[in-house]
Write a structure and sequence with these properties.
By secondary structure, the protein is an alpha+beta fold. The strands form 3 sheets. Strands 14, 15, 16, 17, 18, 19, 20 and 21 form an 8-stranded mixed β-sheet that branches. Strands 3-4-9-6-8-7 form a 6-stranded mixed barrel. It has a 4-stranded antiparallel β-sheet with strand order 13-22-12-23.
């Protein structure tokens, strides 16, 4: 008996295993049958399938494209060793916000070994490449020798910098980018040890960086694009107080940016005491610094495309409900033959998942085009743009949203199968009346579509109005017919300030002699160029507490610059050709500085200390209008200008006003400078109107994308309303015939259908207005001169939506008004 029981006990698990195999196999067989049946059903309705797939492709494609950007910019870690241990050390210099460091501070923090494994600094520079054809301006970075080992970036060829090569007395060496290696050395592996002549100094190439490293570092690096050349710091006593170094550090094991605060404060206090300064520091994650400005815009755009996808799902759900209603006889027969309701639900969900899969395939095609377009248009706007691509994580995201979409738009039609009244359906004719529940659900879907599209339209409208306000801002200068060109003078050839001043003076004279040129000048940082140098200034007779020092933007301008740029003179005079070395040192200030430091006073004749390679005080001889140097939507900072002849600079921008199209002068301007110095490169030749356009490019891109998504949402909502009304008219043909037979006029029928459509639209507008008031607050940081509850925008969008939906109602209403009562009464 024991053996018999043991045999039974041993057999039971095997029986369960066989049952599981049988159930799993049967499930797979049923799933395969569902897929084949679903495919046949979709193929039999090519029009319905094509429309549903296109609608889904629009929603899924937009989501995939924007997620590709979010993934590349925000989610993907920086391509360095242990990126979470990297921090930026930013200087806090009251009353300014965080700034780069000066060289003395960099050396102090480099000695804090208890906090950091490594501390490295770098800054942008530009050098002229000569000896290989026409002079070419290269983007360069001067960095401390430990930068690449700290980042974990190994050269593709050669070696990285040695510690001694960072010293000013070392031999000049360079590492070059993969792109420059291909362009100059044709990708030869024996280029190590060869030389490059940069700004009249010979540098030995010691390494080639890998093609995967594009210089995606924080700080001011992303503003200039991928560098061509990297050279060691090799600094000879840079001026104290000049904040130009971006500092990266790697935290010691056990420390992270969240718990390093007390140690940082203690080290900062020690340095403050040793150097008698009030500067503190702040640790910033490099990725946050690189992507900080782009993060809110990208998340808002991702939310917008989610709305588009929801509208698309509602549209397809409405189509599927109409299609399911037409198949109710088939469903009733299958139920009568013994099919379970949940079996039919599974069949319906299988068909919707098939639609979602087809939509995702078409959406991937749309997304690939969209990503290429976004990368092309956002090349100079979007950080980490080279890392945006459709990869495995993006494909997984697309698969996920296609499955989620299939469930979302397939659930409502599938639930109709469960609630179907078998006997009533079998008794009714082929075209029985649609149930109230179906009417209500389809109406709710339309209301949701209209509401969501209104939210997107309001957001787009607010951004459009903000963009108009930004562009209409007073720039402080006249950008029309202005041409700009950057010059970077060789340090060895133009070492003395007299040589720098003479070259710029001769260049301006040659340019002014060109036919069609009205005026010319030079400036260290052009308006809206984004660059600038700020620092402490002294004001004679005024003292400031340590935490509120007098700080201003510092710029160097030639005689004729203000007249060329048409910057208004508020008081005093402009610089003249008489403001040269040996004459009294002078300065011009802007209105912001006059308001800040000379309130209620006449600043003309007062004296200030520029404190940047100048000696003594400068007399204020003029006040000019505020000029937008950083962005059109940011406040103007106090600014001081000193004359180029009294304080020359090797880096400057020539500004030329012409009577003709400035773009036609590019060739002749280059020729005049080449004749003056055959080794002088001319770079970044642009019109000022291009610069103005580029300064608002980020706003324009965000506005255009959100507006595009809003238009797609509006079209989908209109299609949903049109489809609902058309289906309603088809289902109510008999009722319409009875109304007509009892004396209703075509106009009455027309009003009936339009009224139904308008009720749905007004309900959707009400729902959308409530949602907009809540959600558009997220746009507040992007708005300029416009409130998030701007009544003009809300009213305009509501009127637009009513007009579009009225057009969507017109065709179904006209069709209903032309129903023949005799034919309608025979309608089954």
């Amino acid at each position: 008996m024991r053996n018999s029981k043991c045999e039974i006990a041993e057999a039971i698990p095997n029986c369960h295993f066989a049952f599981r195999i049988s159930s799993w196999g049967e499930l797979m067989n049923e799933t395969w049958r569902d897929l084949r049946y679903g495919l046949r059903t979709l193929i039999k309705s090519p029009g319905f399938t094509a429309i549903a797939v296109l609608v889904l492709a629009a929603g899924i494609g937009a989501n995939t494209a924007i997620f590709s950007v979010v993934n590349g910019v925000l989610l993907r870690p920086l391509p360095f060793k242990d990126p979470d241990k990297l921090v930026m050390i930013r200087d806090l210099q009251p009353p300014l916000d965080e700034t780069p460091m000066d060289y003395d501070e960099f050396r102090d923090w480099r000695q804090q070994g208890q906090l950091f494994e490594e501390v490295s600094g770098f800054f942008n520079a530009s050098y002229t490449l000569t000896g290989s054809g026409e002079p070419e301006e290269l983007k360069c970075v001067r960095a401390s020798a430990n930068l690449f080992p700290m980042l974990g970036v190994a050269p593709a060829l050669g070696r990285a910098f040695l510690p001694d090569e960072e010293l000013a007395t070392s031999e000049p060496v360079a590492m070059i980018s993969s792109g420059l290696w291909q362009r100059i050395f044709a990708g030869r592996s024996d280029c190590i040890g060869e030389t490059l002549k940069l700004s009249d100094r010979v540098y030995t190439v010691v390494g080639v960086l890998p093609s995967t490293f594009r210089g995606a570092l924080p700080g001011n690096l992303q503003a200039v694009g991928a560098p061509d050349v990297w050279i060691p710091l090799r600094l000879r006593a840079p001026p104290s107080g000049l904040h130009f170094l971006t500092v990266l550090a790697r935290l010691q094991p056990g420390l992270d940016i969240r718990n390093a605060g007390p140690e940082i404060e203690a080290a900062s206090a020690r340095i403050q005491q040793e150097r008698s300064t009030n500067h503190t520091v702040k640790l910033v994650k490099p990725r946050d610094y690189i992507t900080g400005a782009a993060r809110p815009a990208l998340l808002i755009l991702l939310g917008a495309v989610c709305f588009v996808l929801l509208i698309a799902c509602a549209n397809v759900a409405s189509l599927l409900m109409a299609r399911t209603a037409g198949r109710r006889k088939e469903i009733a027969i299958r139920l009568a033959l013994g099919a379970s309701r949940w079996r039919l639900v599974r069949q319906m969900l299988t068909e919707s998942l098939l639609l979602g899969s087809l939509g995702s395939l078409a959406g991937l095609l749309i997304a690939s085009w969209g990503v290429d377009l976004l990368v092309f248009t956002g090349r100079t706007i979007i950080p980490r743009v080279d890392e945006i691509k459709i990869d495995a994580s993006v494909l997984a995201f697309t698969l996920g949203i296609s499955l989620l979409s299939g469930v979302l738009f397939g659930l409502a039609p599938a639930l109709q199968c469960i609630r179907a009244d078998l006997q009533a359906t079998l008794k009714e004719g082929a075209r029985g009346a649609i149930t109230f529940e179906r009417h209500r659900l389809r109406s709710l879907l339309v209301i949701a579509e209209v509401g969501l599209s209104l939210v997107l339209l309001v957001g787009a409208g607010l951004l459009i109005r903000s963009f108009e306000r930004v562009v209409a801002q007073d720039k402080g200068f006249d950008p029309s017919r202005l041409l700009t060109a950057d010059l970077s003078l060789s340090q060895s050839k133009y070492e003395k300030i007299e040589q720098q001043s003479l070259f710029i003076q001769q260049t301006l004279e040659r340019v002014r002699a060109i036919p069609g040129v009205e005026a010319s000048g030079a400036i260290s940082n052009i308006p809206l160029g984004g660059g600038g140098t700020n620092g402490d200034i002294g004001i004679e007779g005024k003292t400031f507490p340590p935490d509120s020092a007098a700080v201003a933007e510092k710029r160097i301008a030639s005689a004729g610059y203000f007249e060329t740029a048409r910057i208004r003179l508020i008081a005093g005079r402009y610089f003249t050709e008489r403001d040269v070395p040996g004459t009294p040192q002078v300065a011009i200030i802007n209105e912001a500085l006059a308001r800040t430091f000379f309130p209620g006073e006449d600043p003309i004749g007062k004296r200030i200390d520029f404190r940047w390679d100048t000696t003594g005080l400068q007399e204020i001889v003029g006040v000019v209008a505020d000029v937008k140097h950083y962005a059109l939507d940011t406040p103007v900072l106090p600014e001081v200008y000193v004359p180029f002849a009294q304080r020359p600079s090797r880096g400057t921008t020539i500004v030329i006003r012409s009577r003709i199209d400035p773009a036609s002068l590019v060739g002749v301007v280059r020729q005049q400078i080449f004749e003056l110095d055959k080794g002088q490169a001319v770079s970044n030749v642009r019109t000022m109107e291009q610069i103005v356009s580029e300064s608002v490019a980020s706003r324009r891109l965000s506005m255009s994308l959100l507006a595009g998504f809003a238009v797609v949402a509006l079209l989908l909502a209109s299609m949903g309303l049109y489809g609902t009304l058309s289906y309603s008219v088809a289902q109510r043909t008999q009722e319409i015939g009875i109304r007509s037979a009892m004396g209703a006029q075509p106009g009455d029928i027309f009003k009936l259908v339009v009224g139904h459509g308008m009720k749905l639209t007004l309900a959707g507008i009400g729902f959308g207005l409530v949602g907009s008031l809540a959600l558009t607050k997220l746009l507040a940081t992007f708005l300029f001169g416009v409130s998030a509850s701007d009544p003009v925008t809300y009213a305009g969008v509501a009127v637009l939506l009513l007009g579009i939906t009225l057009l969507a109602c017109y065709v179904p209403a006209r069709r209903a008004s032309k129903v023949d009562p005799i034919v309608a009464l025979r309608y089954e």
